[in-house]
Amino acid sequence: MNDLGLLSEGKSVKSVNVSFRIPYYTHWGQRLLVCGSEPILGSWSVKKGLLLSPVHEGEELIWYGNLSVPNGFTCEYNYYVVDDGKNVLRSEMGKKRILLLPEGINGGETVQFHDLWQTGGDAMPFTSAFKDVIFRRSRNLNIERPLGVQTRCDNADAVVVHFKICCPNIEEKTCVYVIGSTAKLGQWKIQGGLKLSYAGDSIWQGDAVIPRSDFPLKYRYCKYDKAENVSLETGQNRDLSIDSSKNPPGYIFLSDGMMREMPWRGAGVAIPMFSVRSENDLGVGEFLDLKLLVDWAVESGFHLVQLLPINDTSVNGMWWDSYPYSSLSVFALHPLYLRVQALTENFQEDVKKEIEEAKVRLDGKDVDYEATLATKLSIAKKVFAQEKDLILNSSSFQQYFSENEEWLKPYAAFCFLRDFFETSDHSQWGRFSNYSKEKLEKLVSKDSLHYNIICFHYYVQFHLHSQLSQAAEYARNKGVILKGDLPIGVDRNSVDTWVYPNLFRMNTSTGAPPDYFAKNGQNWGFPTYNWEEMSKDNYAWWRGRLTQMAKYFTAYRIDHILGFFRIWELPEHAMTGLIGKFRPSIPLSQEELEKEGIWDFDRLSRPYIKQEFLQEKFGASWTLIASNFLNEYQKGRYEFKEDCNTEKRIASNLKTFSEKSMLLESEDKIRHNLFDLLKNIVLIRDPEDPRSFYPRFNLEDTSSFQDLDDHSKNVIKRLYYDYYFHRQDDLWRQNAMKTLPALLNSSDMLACGEDLGLIPACVHPVMQELGLIGLRIQRMPSEPGLEFGIPSQYSYMTVCAPSCHDCSTLRAWWEEDEERRCKFFKTVVGSDIVPSSKCTPDIARFFIRQHVEAPSMWAIFPLQDLLALKEEYMTRPATEETINDPTNPKHYWRYRVHVTLEGLMKDKELKTILRGLVSGSGRSHPSLGESEEVLVSITGKQQVSSGKENTIAKQLNGALKKETSVA
Q1: Residues 327, 292 contacting (CB under 8 angstroms)
Q2: How far apart are CA 931 and CA 771, in angstroms?
Q3: What does the mean pLDDT of the chain come to?
């Protein structure tokens, strides 16, 4: 039994006082809270965390909080913005903070932690793109001292200040200093300043014992290199005051965030994997071609290579599968990109001959998707038959299999069943329609008759992984970021919908916003996500996707990032995209509408079809059309028959009707007109709740709306704009703040978001908060009232580009519309002359220079736009260089660059032009080693400025005037 008396007679141990201090502006009803890993800070339960109190200090709102902890206490912690119920509204991004007390601190002393709120942008240097590629040299720095204070001070008239700064971009033999207004910081001279020590993870720290009489203190961080150059951080001096209370701090920990420097900017090239052409490929770009592409990027000044999705899309067994955004599996790589020549060193003679013949046969202008894939799989099967035991028993394969079997087994089984049943529609697979682990294990069992077929799919994926891994490691070592693409959707007949049916809703979603469908009327047909179900395991399926991508990529593009806020959802029977609603969204209730004087819900939610509409659309054939598809329920008023009341039913019945009838109009025209009638509604009734309604997109364009009385028009118009532009903002923000952080925290890749289209007000603030980089395409400005974006006004957290894979190339865009071309020339270049109808190299150079000189973090150019810098690469018609036509859901994705990578490597002139544009704009570029030459085609290294574009415009204007006068 313990002697309680002896304990009570001992001296009491005084606690250490810990004080938190952080500047942060909040809205009404919001508070700041600190939560951490130890019980005293809630054990990561935010509702048990420490609430902070606000104090106005000058123009700043500072939040303070205090607690007492035992000596030797340590924990992790972070800050959160919460509401009155301690519900999290916002949380910090980046790494968890560490609370370390000074060694040997006395009980009763006070330690104050001065922190700054960490945004997603602060976490960016710790992404693999920067940490492992751009700033990888910092990994070679030796850690000079561990984190924390190592200085004692027993002088009551002084304070130990612990300076800590993050500086990821550091050159060899460069030091970090603090200089300031006190003698302890050199009185602004580097010679007497405080030299900081490297603590790992780009953190530099140091302690200074500063007399209390020297406060308030002003200071700055700076770099000091081997050539004795001093590089001061930008912005105003930093300030530090001390508490004048009865118990002032003896120690102050300054976590000063990032060193303020000129923002790092880089450039990149974008090209789909299938579009790459090399002397070794078999009809399509291959993963091992990326090595040569990386070499070209380095010599051209590019730090990044961007690809389209590279997952297996073999759903339909035909060229439709060329669409890279509709994956068969979100984990499996596409066999199309396999280099069969690298499968073995011991090819049989007949296989060697087959490869050589295939190289010639498949070396076409465009990708022959079906022939190329069939040839590669045929050759791979022959090599597999020869070497399967050697590969499957190897330690490298065994390791790969053990790390990937969770998705690899279902994928291989799916491929077998797809081929056996001759369809990917797993609802047609009999007893295998419903997935189970028991059925899977029998399918992939070594005792099964088809085990060899299953193993072949393992084998192909293993080699694809090996080849892409080689290329990815090569890129990292060369200082080039490999950027992947994360599609928003999966094919409804995919491995993922088979294995995880509860994660998907089998209605239809689209990767395009409703304003797009208003123009094009097309529907891609992805299933929507069941976010509620996904949240139950903290979005494990998404986190698995990102973990898999991070094996190969150090950056990624989130396709249609708006889908993580809301998705445009259509009923399963839809074939076009306008009769949908946002999920999630707040509908218009019947009560809400009735209060506004709206009562006739059948009139507003049923197709509004009058006899005159039928006569106008179908002419003399209107009675025949009406008798087959419609019923007349009132004099001159019609409704669709029950077997024709959806787009899919109309399409099905129309096929039979067209075969029996002799009509002058085409089937397509009749279908289009019938669909128009079906969509002639104002409100969409919710099938799950008949008292809830959604305003039909672009409802003002319908005759149903135009025939309403003025009161109804005004009410519905107001509710329409509220639904689409205001009502959902808080809901969509909350949805994104649940889903996106789970993605971002599941890998350390640099994340970019494709944020084009109808952008809700909540999107850009969330992206900024999470450190997501947006996309800016000059011809698709996000700013209202602009026809053309202004690159010099783009924000830093953006990728800027003159075009992308979903639109025409720079050259095609310039040449296809004279009126727009002249308007651009007048607006952007500032000239009234008629510009050249051809996109000459001078014009291409103007566009590229505009973008490399933009403030955007990244300027990324489609390879086709870069080739427009030289006449010799313009022999191919510009229209043939477009990768995708978004107006056509069955577009054939088959574009191949008409010049090989080997040919580009030999073109020193183009590489010199590109490297000059990149380096001349002040953007970072990969080093060519000690023998690097200065390849600058314009004079001097220039910084971005608002006046620069006028100079460029004058240069271009002059060049084009000469061209015009010659013509």
Answers
A1: no
A2: 37
A3: 90
